[in-house]
Each structure stands twice: as structure tokens, then as C-alpha cells.
């Protein structure tokens, strides 16, 4: 019987327009009303994740930044897994060598050296996946990263690495040049204590080896007295694999890559078709009121 459901955000819970469908909201609230723990498991920072959830009045525990931070339903930090500062510097040196744009996620927020790039890279990624979208509307959504204070500009990442108040959660690198991204990844694989995943073909997500969605989900389940065989994980990308491998039931989105689908127990509808809702309703059939 499913007692805990972990749900990815981008490409899973959210549509291409960055919205949660009414069907998904209804299913999540129904699961919660039945006593099922619904936890959001995302590569987003807490700030960027809660920006969307709060708008819908959705209250859930959160696994943020791929497991670098776990928050309770009342938004308190209950666990963190940060990168060693020395490791973050090694990663930075490699990314700089390949001239890759990247952002740094910390316990104090997400940071960029280039605000314009922070917006344009998101527009490019969104438009490449959704060519029919209105570029002006996409630009407005992307600009909210800056105007709403979701991403902050800093003159140098050394200001974060040298400040004891900042825990380094993740470095997120982007490039549409697959050969460069692959070369950088090969070099990054040599860095000890590093987990490398991605939420899209155009990025690399770099966290502590202990900051992975699966590990965080296991900790969350244990803390709530839930056996992992009674958990379900829903996602669409490579940074979801660690929780797919540990959850009792793994569900890939219909829009997921075929490689991802092949490693899951079930495949649901796409994110545009409220695939999360379908997966939840199917799981709730065995849950008593």
C-alpha cells in the first residue's frame, strides 16, 4: 500500500507553462486527505519551488536541490547535504575551463554572475522544448527569476566559497553544445565526492554524492516510519533515477526519455495530460479512507 508519494516538478508536476493542473492539485489533495505523505522532490531551490507551490496553496514537505536540502511541510530545514568548498572550487575551475555558464545554489539562495544569461538561457531551453510557445510570454516567466528575487547576482563566486554562512548545495551548468558538455562531464567524473545528474540534455547538475533524490527520499521515509516498499516516485529525467531505484513503485512520465521509461515500473500520461494525477489515482485504489 502506498504511504508516500515523491513527485518531481519540472516536466512532471508542472506543465510547459510552469503550472500545476487542477487535476494534479485535486489528486494530491485527495492523497493527503487519505493520510498519504506527498513530498515534492525537485532540483529547484526551496525559493524557486515554493514560488510555484505557494501560488496554488499547496503545502508539502520538500526535497530541494536534488536532496541537498529537506524541508518539512511547515518549511523548516530538517536536513542538508552540501558540497565541500574545496570540491566546489574544483568544479568551478573545470566549468570555467570549458567556458560553461553555471549558477551556484546555496542555503542563502541561487546566484549568477550574469543576470541576462540567467534569463536568456531559460528562454532558450524553454523555446527549444516548446517551439510553439509565445517567446514574449516565455521571456516574462524567465525574467521572474530575477525580478522576484529567485536568482541573485554576485560579482564572484569566491564571495560564496569564502563565506562560512553559505553552504554550497549545487552547481548547475548549461550548454547546447553536447560535445563540450560531455567533455566537461568526463573531467568532472574524476572529482571525488561528486554526484552528476541532469534535468535536461542541456545541463549538468553537480551536488554532493549524498545529495541525491533517492537518498533524501529514503531519509524522509525513515523519519516518518514508512518502509521504502510503500513509496512511489514520479519523475521524468535523469536526476530522478536515484529515487526510481529505491522507491517501491517507480512511475515515468509519458514525456520522459525512453531510457528513463525503461527503468521504471510504470509509465503514466505526459505532464500536459496531468500524468501525475493519473499515477496518484491509480495508486490510491489500494489506500483505504
Task: Kindly list the characteristics that best describe this protein.
21% strand, alpha/beta, 12 helices, 8-stranded mixed sheet, 2 domains, Rossmann fold, 289 residues, 40% helix, Hypothetical Protein, Haloacid Dehalogenase-like Hydrolase, Chain: A, domain 2
Instruction: Provide the residue-averaged pLDDT.
Output: 94
**Level of helix content?**
25-40%
Distance between the termini: 12 Å
Low-confidence stretches: none
Instruction: Please give the count of helices.
Output: 12
Count of β-strands: 14
Number of domains: 2
Outline: globular
Radius of gyration: 18 Å
> Architecture of the largest domain in CATH?
3-Layer(aba) Sandwich
Largest sheet, order of strands side by side?
A: 5-4-3-2-1-12-13-14
Largest sheet: 8 strands, mixed
Taken in chain order, the helices and strands follow as: EHHEHEEEHEEHHEHEHEEHEHEHEH
Q: What can you see in these coordinates?
A:
One of its GO terms (cellular component) is cytosol. The chain has 289 residues and is α/β, with parallel strands linked by helices. Helix 2 (22-33) runs parallel beside helix 12 and helix 5 (115-129) packs antiparallel against helix 6 (135-147). The chain is globular, with a radius of gyration of 18 Å. The strands form two sheets. It has an eight-stranded mixed β-sheet with strand order 5-4-3-2-1-12-13-14, sandwiched between helices. The chain has a six-stranded mixed β-sheet with strand order 8-7-6-9-11-10, sandwiched between helices. The model has no long low-confidence stretch (mean pLDDT 94). The chain has twelve helices and 14 strands. The chain starts with a strand and ends in a 5-residue tail after the last helix. The protein folds into two domains: 4-80 and 212-284, HAD superfamily/HAD-like (Rossmann fold); 85-208, Hypothetical Protein, Haloacid Dehalogenase-like Hydrolase, Chain: A, domain 2 (2-Layer Sandwich), CATH 3.30.1240. 40% of the residues lie in helices and 21% in strands.
